[in-house]
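Posting here for the record, re: FE2/S2 (inorganic) cluster.
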Amino acid sequence: MSEPMNRREIIKGATGGIGGLITAVIGIPSIAYLIDPALKESAKEDWIPIGKMENIPVGQPTPFSFTRVQVNGWERTATSHGGFVLRNSEALDDLLILNSRCTHLACTVNWSENDKVYLCPCHDAKFSQQGEVLGGPPPRPLDHFTEFRVTEDGVLEIFYKEA
Ligand code: FES
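Prediction output follows.
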């Protein structure tokens, strides 16, 4: 017949149990960190949702941005991308989607509502609303996201492919 546990044994058992629990809880993030890079390999190409069509007015360049994470072994690199959607009409496929990366040395252009042009802050380039070069050193117009679609829920998605 076993003897009932005395007070010291109960405390010792409880302490051991709590210690084990703490080890398990602290251990989970460490293990997750160690195996995480392998699990988070980012897709080289993907459909990126950039906004609801109902929130994109006709005739007004509407900015969007998204981030992609590249994983190379233990090293992660987050890269920001962005652009402007220009709806030419109410038709869902009548769009121009410009990349906001300047074609000179890749600074980000901004839309100037006053001048109705995209301005590059790095070397004072100007691009028209359609992305054509109006001034400055860029060798070609702003790039376009040419593949896009609108989901049944009215969300505009662009097709992103890692260069
Ligand atoms: S990077 Fe835009 S003008 Fe040079």
